[in-house]
Amino acid sequence: MKRTWRFWLALWAGKIITMGLLVTGKKGTTLPGKIANWIDPLIMHHLSVAYNEGIIMVTGTNGKTTTANLLANILRQSGKNFAFNQAGANLVTGITGALIQNTGWNGLSRARLALLEVDEATVPKFCEQVAPSLAIVTNFFRDQLDRYGELDTTVRMVKGSLPKETVLVLNGDDPLVAQFGTNHISTIYYGVERTPDSRCESQETREARFCPECGTVLDYSLFHYGQLGIFKCSGCGFHRPEPKILANDVHTNEELLLFQVDGVLFTIALQGYYNLYNALAALTAARELGLNDRVIEKGLRMFIPQAGRMERFRLPQGEITLTLVKNPTGFDQVIQTMIGVDKPLGIIIGINDLAADGRDISWLWDVNFERLGIHEARIQKVVCTGLRAEDIALRLKYAGVSIQKLVIEHSLAGALDRLKSDKVEGETWFVLPTYTLLFPLREILENQKSAGSTNMGTKDRGEEARA
After folding, report:
1. Hey, which residues are catalytic here?
2. Are residues 291 and 323 in the same domain?
3. Domain total for the chain?
4. pLDDT tens track of the chain, all 467 residues?
5. 104 plus 19 within the same structural domain
6. Residue 91 is part of a domain; what is its CATH number?
7. What is each CA distance from 327 to 143, 226, 320, 323, in whole angstroms?
8. Phi, psi of 462, deg, nearest 5
9. Are 24 and 157 found together in one domain?
C-alpha cells in the first residue's frame, strides 16, 4: 500500500509531539499515537511493513507485560535491535506511538524486528493492520467485565483475529488458550509438569470448567492454579496438548524461581509460580527465534522486574514488594505468594474504580481473601487505601481478618507511613494496588528509596571523614 500525504503528516506530527514530550520530561507514547491515528487511520499498517525480521505480539489476561519484558531482556542479551512498547501502552495509540519512536523522519525504521504487547480487546484492530509473525497467548481470566464483556467473548474475539500464517506460542495448560491450536497451521505449546503448589483437587476460581470444543465438564488430573493444569475431556477427547517446552524440577531458593527445560537449569528473580509461565512463554518464543539456551538463560537470570510486577524497593526501613492486582485469579496467586514467604506480613491494598481499573469492583468477592483470614496470626496490619478503601476493608473483615488489624488511610503517603510503623522483627511488606494507584505509589516509593540512598551516602561520607 502506497504511503500517502496523510502518512507523512501523521508521522511528522507524531514525532514532533514525541519530541515535545521528551523536552518537558514526560514519557508518553499514547498522545503521539492518538494524533497520528486521527490523521491517518492506517499509519500502524504503514509502519509495520518495515519489520521484515518479524513482529512478535504478546497478549492474554495476566502476565503479558512481564512476558514481553522477559523476552525483551533475552533479545538484548543476544544483541538484537528491536522496536518495543516497553512503557506498556498496549492499545492502538500506544503501539502506534512506539512504532513512531522507532521510525526516522524519512519514514525508515531503525529496527527490523518488533516486540509488541497488545491488549486483548485491541487484538482485532491490531491484526486488521498488522500480521504478526509470532503471537504469544499467556492465559485468559475474567478481568474488567464492564470493559471486556464476558470471557467467552474475549476468547472468541482474539481467536478469530489471529492470521492463519502466524506462529502461535500457546500456554498448553490453559484450555481456553490451548484450543487456539486446533486446526492452526503452526503452534508451539509450553507447559509445566508440576509445581510445589500443584494439587489433584482445587477450590480456586476456575474459568474453564467446560470443554471449549464440546461443552462437557473437563476432568483434571492436576491443577497448577485457576484452570491451568493437566486436563482432558471425556466427551470429545480434547486434552492438554503435549508441550514442546515443559518445565520440570520447579522450586524456589530464597527470592529466586528455578526450573529445568530439557535438562537446562533456568533462574528468574521473580516470586510466585505464576511467573514461571511468563518465563516459559519468553523462553519458547526465544527458541523459535533461533536463540540458544546460553543467551536465554542469561536473559532470564539478569531480568529485573518491571514497574509493579513483584518489583522490590529497598528502603531504609526495609524492603517493600509492589505488584499490580486486577482480577481474582491474579490476586489469588499474589496471596499464595505472600503466604509462602512464611514471615510476619504488613500489607497495603489499594483499590480504585476508575475506568482503567474497571468500574465494577464486585470481583473482590471472588478473591480468596479467606486464606489471609486463615493466616491472620501472621498479619501485623492491612492498610486499605484508594477510592474504595472501605469496600476492601469490609471484604477482609468478612474473610476473617481482625478489625484491629485493618487500617483505612486514603492518603497514599500516609498509607505507606502506616505500613512501616511499629514494624516487628522479620516483617515483610507487600503493596498491592489496582492500575491507577500503581504509578502514584511507585513514584512515592522511588522518592523514598532515593532519599534513603542520599541519606545513607551522606552518612557514609561523614563516617569516612571522621575516620
Report:
1. 360
2. no
3. 2
4. 688 899 999 999 999 998 888 888 776 678 999 999 999 999 999 999 999 999 999 999 989 999 999 999 999 999 999 999 987 788 999 999 999 999 999 999 999 999 999 999 999 999 999 999 999 999 998 766 555 567 888 899 999 999 999 999 999 999 999 999 988 989 999 999 999 988 888 766 667 789 999 999 999 999 998 899 999 999 999 999 999 999 999 998 877 899 999 999 999 998 888 899 999 999 999 999 999 999 999 999 999 877 777 888 888 888 899 999 988 888 998 998 898 888 899 999 999 999 888 888 999 998 999 989 898 899 999 999 999 999 999 999 999 999 999 999 999 999 999 999 888 888 899 999 998 999 999 999 988 877 665 554 444 434 433 33
5. yes
6. 3.40.1190.10
7. 5, 12, 22, 13
8. -65, -45
9. yes
Residue 420's domain comprises 311-454
For residues 221 and 212, what is the distance between their CA atoms, to the nearest angstrom?
A: 18
Query: What global pTM score does this model have?
Result: 0.83
**281 with 377, same domain?**
no
C-alpha grid cell for residue 370? 479467606
Phi-psi label, residue 104: left if phi above 0, alpha if psi -120 to 50, beta otherwise: beta
- Residue 420: give its domain's CATH number: 3.90.190.20
280 and 425 share a domain?
A: no
Are residues 379 and 293 part of one domain?
no
In the chain, count H helices and then E strands: 16, 17
Does residue 315 fall inside a structural domain?
yes
Contact (Cβ atoms closer than 8 angstroms) between residue 204 and residue 332: yes
> Does residue 149 share a domain with residue 290?
yes
Residue 71 in contact with residue 282, Cβ under 8 Å? yes
Task: Return d(Cα 24, Cα 60) in angstroms, integer.
Answer: 34
* 30 is a domain residue: yes
Q: CA 396 to CA 126: how far, in whole Å? A: 40
